[in-house]
Write a structure and sequence with these properties.
The complex is a heterodimer. By secondary structure, chain A is mostly beta strands. Helix content of chain A is about 5%, strand content about 25%. Chain A has one domain. Chain A has a 5-stranded antiparallel β-sheet, with no helix packed on it. Chain A starts with about 30 loop residues before the first helix and ends in a 15-residue tail after the last strand. Chain B is α/β, with parallel strands linked by helices. Chain B has a domain of about 130 residues: Thiolase/Chalcone synthase (Peroxisomal Thiolase, Chain A, domain 1), CATH 3.40.47.10. Classes of the chains: A mainly beta, B alpha/beta. The interface between A and B is large, with 62 and 57 residues. Strand 3 of chain A pairs antiparallel with strand 5 of chain B.
């Protein structure tokens, strides 16, 4: 049946201008805001400080200023460590423009100890075949951390025994 | 009392890697012209236009609805633009249907498109955010970890994604508008490059240029089209935050709640029994078993069994993605509307070689963002 319908798809005539490349450049001012500023101010001390709403809120890192479940401000700081657990991951084999690392590499969801949400991070200093859910990892910092998350170069296995599945199953 | 909504015209472009012979206005007009022709209407018959597409950064054209107004016959008429990431094609159809349902307009043209050849979606989705760690994987890299989590959580055989890819890709050959026109075997899919392990190249959607259009009317104009209309029996949308602690990205709550809502409106209590076929947003083949569970076609952890048994094949008891789905064509902004359109084509009996015999009730589904925007509708060949 393929081709039974005239779909109208035709080749462009040879003299048709089908496209021109116009690079665009965007420059903008970014206001980090109160919550992110508080979080970032601890990064030069190699400290990861999450935030929660009230005494019993879920702990967000990096914090965005409010608890998405109720819109309330994350007004309390919660000191975390720079260690955590891989909850799930993929192995990236596809190169793309601007890629900073060599393929294959592992992109993982990491649950920092004491946090309630995972974040996406790069895992290095391990064979990709060794990486698995429950694996314990630690941050590798740049020599002179500045107030940006780029101060964490990547995470690597910490050598601790695996975390139990129960400890991260609700934090996918 | 809300008005009934009828789908009286359906049009789409041939989807392809590059539709170089068409400008963006030409692309949307090709789909819109076909929908009007199917509706046996002219531009003058249309009261309002609703257009949707994915993020503007995809083509680098800000507010494209402004420069597309002429091509869609919109000057002098109301025109709205909708955006809800990858689910936008579904949401756009729903905004248009809502205008009819509410009695605001009688005949609405709705169009959704993407011209990915004029863009770099990978770049558009990986722009550097100040103070944030560099995003290291693109869209496939974002979803692949949750596919792995699905496989591990339910101990799923690791070749279900291959089986879905074989089914959908081969369905696409039956659809002359589909981008991918290739038959594939199990071995070919298995041996294709592992892009974002566990997702392979042939288990992934292509990057397409394409558009889709629908003409939606009130009951007064429901007999306008070449064929009897598809009637909208339910429509629902839901969202949830992108970054919510303890959120389940394998089986998202927003998807479940959206499905419950649309089924309740349409009187569906057992989706597998009550729905004849479904066209569901599956950009990576592993999303079929995930969504079979999220949409209650199977109990949690058992969606893959439906796929494995052949139930979702064109000749199965609940065909999914008869058109070849997103695995075969992915003009991102249009992809959701194409799912809604295929559902309507099925109940109107106009799906050609991928027609499900006697389809009377069909589901169209779209999702977007980080699995946090959902849009669904149920259409039938009978009036509500």
């Amino acid at each position: 049946m393929s081709g039974a319908t005239d779909t109208g798809d035709t080749d462009a005539p040879a003299d048709l201008v089908t496209g021109i490349v116009v690079p665009i450049h965007v420059e903008y001012e970014y206001t980090a805001g109160e919550a992110a500023s508080r979080f970032l101010s601890h990064i030069p001390e190699r400290r990861l400080v999450g935030q929660r709403h009230g005494d019993h809120g879920l702990v967000y890192v990096p914090p965005r200023g409010s608890d998405p479940a109720n819109g309330e401000p994350t007004d309390q700081d919660v000191e975390l460590t720079d260690q955590g657990t891989v909850t799930t991951f993929c192995i990236v084999n596809v190169p793309f423009a601007g890629q900073a690392v060599e393929c294959p590499y592992v992109c993982a969801q990491i649950l920092l100890d004491g946090a309630d949400i995972t974040f996406q991070a790069l895992i290095q200093e391990a064979e990709v075949s060794q990486i698995h859910p429950g694996m314990r990892v630690e941050a590798v910092w740049v020599d002179d951390p500045e107030p940006t998350l780029e101060s964490i170069r990547y995470f690597r296995p910490s050598g601790e025994p695996d975390a139990t599945p129960e400890s991260y199953k609700d934090h996918m | 009392m809300a008005n009934n909504v009828a789908v009286v015209g359906i049009g789409q472009t041939k989807h392809n890697t590059q539709r170089n012979e068409l400008s963006m206005p030409g692309l949307v007009r090709e789909a819109a012209t076909r929908a009007l022709e199917d509706a046996q209407m002219t531009w003058a018959d249309i009261d309002a236009v609703v257009i949707g597409k994915a993020p503007d950064t995809f083509e680098g054209v800000m507010m494209p609805e402004l420069f597309l107004a002429d091509a869609l016959g919109a000057p002098g008429k109301p025109m709205l633009r909708v955006h809800t990431a990858g689910s936008v094609g579904g949401s756009t159809a729903m905004v248009a249907a809502g205008l009819v349902k509410a009695g605001v307009h009688e005949r609405v043209l709705t169009v959704a498109y993407e011209k990915q050849s004029e863009s770099n979606a990978m770049w558009a989705l990986a722009m550097k955010i100040p103070f944030a760690p560099p995003l290291v994987a693109g869209a496939g890299g974002y979803f692949a970890p949750y596919v792995r989590a699905y496989i591990e959580r339910h101990d799923v055989p690791d070749d279900i994604g291959i089986k879905v890819a074989v089914k959908d890709t081969n369905n696409g050959v039956l659809n002359p508008y589909a981008h991918k026109q290739m038959t594939v075997t199990y071995d070919e899919v298995r041996d294709s490059m592992m892009l974002w392990d566990p997702i392979r190249f042939l288990e992934s959607c292509p990057s397409s240029d394409g558009a889709c259009a629908l003409v939606l009317t009130s009951e007064a104009h429901a007999a306008s089209g070449k064929l009897p209309p598809a009637w909208v029996h339910g429509m629902a949308w839901r969202s949830e935050p992108t970054m919510l602690a303890r959120q389940d990205k394998v089986n998202p709550r927003a998807g479940q709640e959206c499905a419950r809502d649309v089924y309740a409106q349409a009187g569906i209590t057992d989706p597998r029994r009550d729905i004849d076929c479904a066209e569901v947003y599956v950009p990576f083949s592993w999303f079929e078993p995930k969504w079979l569970e999220n949409l209650f076609f199977a109990p949690e952890g058992e969606g893959w069994k439906l796929t494995e048994s052949g139930a979702t094949s064109l000749d199965g008891d609940i065909p999914w993605n008869m058109s070849g789905g997103v695995i075969c064509s992915n003009p991102i902004g249009a992809s959701g509307m194409l799912r809604f359109a295929e559902a309507a084509m099925q109940v109107r009996g106009q799906a050609g070689a991928h027609q499900v015999d006697g389809a009377a009730t069909a589901l169209g589904h779209a999702y977007g963002g980080g699995s946090q925007f959902f849009a669904m509708w149920i259409v039938r060949n009978t009036k509500p």
